[in-house]
Write a structure and sequence with these properties.
Radius of gyration: 20 Å
Distance between the termini: 38 Å
Number of strands: 15
Largest sheet: 6 strands, parallel
Strand content: 35-45%
Number of helices: 8
Strand order of the largest sheet: 3-2-1-6-7-8
Helix content: 25-40%
Length: 253
């Protein structure tokens, strides 16, 4: 059994489509890879000034922090700082990248497996450093993920594809793994938390895919695979192959 650690850059995950993600599902995701979670850290910003000024805001944030703790995560809070940019506008920023990187390097000494929750390419060197120590490093991210980070990870978990990680929706999300010149493609859809819990038999016909309500050209349809576009759709199952209907490009923004 692998000994695992989880290190979540919560601010990055939340602003790139993962707002409201379920911490308990993240733990189960790691356990589904055959690992026992020994360390679980969540790095969050804390705006002390606003919490001092707004009781309802403070209570909502404290409720969230307590919920994270109940799911077995240790909170590492980074105080938000205010400054003026060149246009004179107030900017609030809290960056816990250094804290996360140092903690991961130190705490991974007795771990076999690390799940790094972020899409920030600044963590590329951390991934390599952990791998150089013999650790398996998976990355969990949502939108705006660094291509280099995805490629360097031992496995990249697309958060949008993982069941029960985000609030439930009637529509499914998948990616093309095969496209045929005759105007159809096959989608990969994740059915469970293990990396092998995939189905690859969902067929998508070009006429069932639209952008802004309009059908696309054959070249544009084929390009969905090249661009690794996330496709959301209604899954129709019955006689024959499962079919994707009313498909569009998934937009998390």
């Amino acid at each position: 059994m692998l000994k695992a650690g989880i290190f979540l850059d919560v601010e990055n995950l939340s602003r790139t489509g993962g707002r409201g993600f379920r911490y308990e599902t993240v733990r189960r995701l790691v356990e589904a890879q055959g690992a026992t979670v020994l360390r679980a850290n969540a790095y969050l910003a804390i705006d002390l000034q606003r919490e001092d000024e707004d009781d309802s805001y403070r209570q909502a944030k404290e409720n969230h922090r307590n919920a994270v703790r109940r799911n077995g995560f240790h909170l590492v809070l980074k105080e938000a700082r205010r400054y003026r940019n060149d246009d004179g506008q107030e900017v609030v920023k809290a960056n816990a990248d250094l804290d996360l990187a140092v903690d991961a390097l130190l705490q991974a000494e007795n771990l076999d497996y690390v799940l790094l929750g972020t899409g920030d390419g600044d963590f590329l060197r951390l991934v390599r450093a952990l791998q150089d120590k013999g650790k398996r490093v998976d990355v969990l991210s949502f939108g705006n993920v660094s291509g280099d980070l995805k490629r360097e990870a031992d496995y990249h978990h697309y958060g949008f594809l993982i069941p029960d990680l985000l609030p439930a929706s009637d529509r499914r999300i998948g990616v093309m793994h095969y496209v045929d010149e005759r105007g159809f493609a096959y989608l990969t859809v994740r059915e469970g938390l293990s990396v092998s819990d995939l189905r690859t038999d969902v067929i998508l016909y070009a006429q069932d895919y639209t952008e802004d309500g309009r059908k696309v050209s054959a070249d544009r349809f084929r390009d969905l695979k090249t661009r690794e576009v996330l496709i959301e759709f209604e899954l129709i199952e019955g006689e024959g192959k499962p079919r994707a209907r009313n498909a569009t490009e998934f937009n998390w923004k």
